[in-house]
Amino acid sequence: MKRGLLLSAVLVVFTGLGGLARYLTLVSHPEPAEVSTAVGGVLPAVPTPPRQQPAPPPPAPVPAPPPPSDQAIVPPAATAPEAPRSPAPTASTTALFTPQAIYPLARWHGTDDRGGEVLSAEIAADLTPGTPRRASPLTSRPLSDQDDILLAGWAGDPILGMRFRDVIISLCDQVIGSAAVHESSPAIARTVHPNLTSAGWRARLPVAFLPRCPQPVLQVWAISAGGYAYPVQGRYALALPPSDARLLLPTDRLRFAAPIVPESQPPLHRTTLHVTGTGANLRRCGQTSCAVTSVLVGGDYPAVVLDRRHGWTLVLISDNSDRGGWISDGTYILQDGTGAAAKDAP
Fold first, then answer.
1. What is the pLDDT of residues 125-180, one digit of tens each?
2. Which stretches of the chain are assigned E, i.e. beta strand?
3. CB 116, CB 222: distance < 8 Å
């Protein structure tokens, strides 16, 4: 009897515990319950486990701050802009020939007729690199090997306006350099001769490369066909340094002039001038407004052609009469050595 009561109590407790478990299940997982007919009453339905979401990626590790230090943190230095590079030194142009190319002045045929004028003769002293040169008159002081001589002037025949292509420069009776005659010279054309519109020239002479002699005199000459040299007004006695080290000096910093020798000049254009009609005028310049220097009657004359320009020809009558001037094209015929007549182009 007592045993049956004990079993009934256990069943009641078990049933109560089942109800409590069901209640807790419904509260935490409110899913619809399935009805079971199994012995022991209504059993709680087994809850469906929630779907597992993919775990998020772990956060990137944060670097730990550096330990404190007493050393000062120096910011990186700013990159300074690269300084512009200086251009490679280039050779400077000079009117001088190389020391090995100079030759005696006597190889030219000298004349007494003036061939131009030196308008400027200066010393250019390069005292400090990068500073402007200071010029002084050529004969104002003794020269040093660091000096340059600067010459400038004009070349041409002041009487008839014959033009020259080059001048040569002599020192110690030797030809040491040359310069081209091509610079514009409107003042010379206005005051000397209208044909000399491009009669200017200039030359630079480094003193260190000049020859030495007991009495050095600098002279410029205008040169023409046939190897003739006309003195250009202006002679300069120089006070040169005593030493002559030309052959020991480096020449790669200078661009020397090409030598001009008399043998390279064209010969004089000698011909026979046949004046047509009753005669023709020789004038001081190639314009009808210029003065008449001589009158040639019709006929033949031995002549030398000196220049041509703008329909006019400058001729010198070579019969010891000292006649010369500009003759208008169309009033004459030039005959070559075979006697064939041909009209000469302007």
1. 754 555 555 688 998 999 998 899 999 999 999 999 999 999 999 999 999 999 99
2. 92-93, 103-104, 109-110, 116-125, 134-137, 147-155, 166-171, 174-180, 200-206, 217-224, 228-237, 254-255, 269-283, 292-309, 312-317, 323-328, 332-335, 341-342
3. yes
The answer to whether residues 235 and 217 touch, using CB atoms and an 8 Å cutoff, is yes
- Distance of alpha carbon 66 from alpha carbon 143, whole angstroms: 73
Q: Any idea what DSSP says for residue 115?
A: -
Closest C-alpha among 107, 111, 214 to residue 171: 214
Nearest-angstrom CA–CA distance, 131 and 284: 48
Q: Which residues of 44-55 are buried (b: 16+ CB within 10 A; e: fewer)?
A: bbeeeeeeeeee
Cβ neighbour number for residue 1 with a 10 Å cutoff: 5
Its pTM stands at 0.69
